[in-house]
Specification:
Elements: H1 9-14, H2 16-19, H3 25-34, E1 36-40, H4 46-56, E2 60-64, H5 89-100, E3 105-109, H6 118-123, E4 127-130, H7 135-148, E5 152-158, E6 161-167, H8 176-179, H9 192-195, H10 199-218, E7 227-232, E8 240-242, H11 277-282, E9 284-285, H12 287-294, E10 301-304, H13 308-313, E11 320-321, H14 327-330, E12 340-343, H15 348-359, E13 365-368, H16 371-378
Parallel strand pairs: 1-2, 1-4, 2-3, 4-5, 9-13, 10-11, 10-12, 12-13
Antiparallel strand pairs: 5-6, 6-7, 7-8
Helix pairs in contact: 4-10
Bound molecules: zinc ion.
Zinc ion (ZN) binds near residues 174, 175, 251 and 252.
Length: about 375
């Protein structure tokens, strides 16, 4: 690829199916080559987003991610291969995208997006596409894009549902906080470890984000600015809701309470029903103490409250099993005077179960903090993680 503005014969050939479209043409394709797009997250959404932007001829892609590829990512994060498990997602992504289009210039931001770099990072690009999977990052990207005065292509996924929109509050459109002013309180959204997400949904939502980004860069069509596309993939319905800018928005409203990126605005815990620390401490046991009790002479009941499919992936030998949802019906089968150590994947469901059991008179019910995932990391590395 030359440094001058005109496309080479190879590029004219490569992008000929774009160029034949009157809405794109040679001029549009050259515009894409000059474009700089930042993609946050190389996961389920970042995969189709970056693949289509690189394939489509966007000249410079900034990639931001700090995570490593894990086996359970491969069900939906199509950038990454089996061989990349254990490696940095950003390296895996760069390798794949270079193989796809060596004419696409990649800028790698290995620390991901943070409070300290967000505004400066986004300012270096024409627009930002958010493929993050958590609330703190989503709010951080929304706010930083506003302060950097760059359009944001938003996408999110949950189970079989997705959302896509374009936020550009600096030109008068609504922002994410116009819809959802604050990070949700813990307990008001479903527990992260229980949620699940359908893999192909990421392709639908991420490809739509890529489409919106390309349209914005080309200046064609009608964008999702001021509209929220809802993807109900399970029922194949795609309603579009009209969004209004909220004059009382804490970020882009007339009297904003958010004037910069302050740490307190981006805190969120996945754990539901968080109780005061002291009460919680009495109801939790660490994995090493739990193991010692489990292997002692008068071993307690070790109770797995995960779903059946999770137990098939891995379980602690010698444990019994009652899924959390069946606990109310089956609790009476448990010995009332014995110590019951409850465990789940990460320790959130088991804490709920321990509280429930105590309310039912099982005074020695206790939750194993960290769950089987921490057990697999620190006690039994041969155990399959998910
Ligand atoms: Zn707003």
């Amino acid at each position: 690829m030359g440094n001058d503005n005109s496309l080479s014969p190879e590029e004219l050939s490569r992008y000929s199916r774009h160029i034949r479209l009157p809405q794109v043409g040679v001029e549009g394709q050259e515009r894409l080559r000059r474009a700089r797009v930042l993609v946050i997250g190389m996961g389920g959404l970042g995969s189709p987003v970056s693949l289509y932007l690189a394939a489509g001829g966007v000249g410079t892609l900034g990639l931001a991610d700090f995570d490593k590829v894990e086996e359970h990512n491969l069900q939906r994060q199509v950038l990454h291969t089996q061989a990349a498990v254990g490696h940095a997602k950003i390296d895996s992504a760069a390798e794949r995208l270079r193989a796809l289009n060596r004419g696409c210039n990649l800028e790698l931001h290995r620390g991901g997006i943070t409070l300290d770099n967000a505004v400066e990072l986004i300012s270096q690009y024409d627009l930002v596409v958010d493929g993050s999977d958590n609330f703190p990052t989503r709010y951080l990207v929304n706010d930083a894009a506003y302060f950097a005065r760059r359009p944001l292509v938003y996408g999110s996924i949950f189970q079989f549902e997705g959302q896509v929109s374009v936020f550009d509050p600096h030109t008068g459109g609504p922002c994410y906080r116009c819809l959802f002013p604050q990070i949700p309180e813990p307990g008001t959204v479903p527990n992260c470890e229980q949620a699940g997400v359908f893999g192909a949904l990421c392709g639908i939502v991420g490809s739509h984000q890529a489409m919106e980004a390309l349209k914005l860069l080309l200046g064609i069509g009608e964008s999702l600015r001021g509209r929220l596309l809802v993807v109900d993939a399970l029922n194949a319905r795609f309603p579009t809701l009209n969004l209004k800018k909220d004059p009382h928005c804490p970020l882009c409203g007339s009297e904003p309470s958010i004037s910069g990126l302050h740490p307190g605005n981006y805190e969120f815990s996945c754990e539901t029903d968080k109780e005061p620390q002291t009460e919680e401490a009495q109801m939790e046991i660490d994995i090493h103490t739990a193991q010692a009790r489990h292997t002692s002479g008068d071993a307690p009941v070790l109770l797995d409250v995960r779903e059946g499919f999770e137990r098939e992936i891995c379980h602690i030998p010698g444990s019994s099993h009652i899924p959390l949802g069946q606990l109310p019906a089956q609790a009476d089968a448990l010995p009332r005077d014995a110590e019951i150590i409850v465990y789940c994947h990460h320790g959130a469901r088991s804490l709920r179960a321990a509280k429930f059991l105590r309310e039912r008179g099982f005074d020695k019910a206790i939750s194993m903090a960290g769950g089987i995932d921490q057990w697999a990391r620190e006690i039994d590395p041969s155990m399959t993680r998910y």
